[in-house]
Amino acid sequence: MIITTTMHIENKPVQEYKGIVFGEVVEGRNFVKDFMSGIRDIVGGRSGSYEDSLMSARKAALDEMSQRASKMGANAIIVLLAG
Question: Rg (Cα) of the chain, in Å, rounded?
């Protein structure tokens, strides 16, 4: 599955729009991770555990979008907006 933020894919004209797809992910809270992140906020620094969690959630959402688009018969997702 091709996924892009642009409106066009070089040498791949859009032949049909299939609709909108979404990918949602909700992660549970973790007291220890929240506590350690709070300490890092006080002393300064980055929270590696939260960064890893965010990257994992983003990948899961993209995978979910890709699966949904594929079920609709699409071979690409264009104009991806992540927020």
Answer: 17
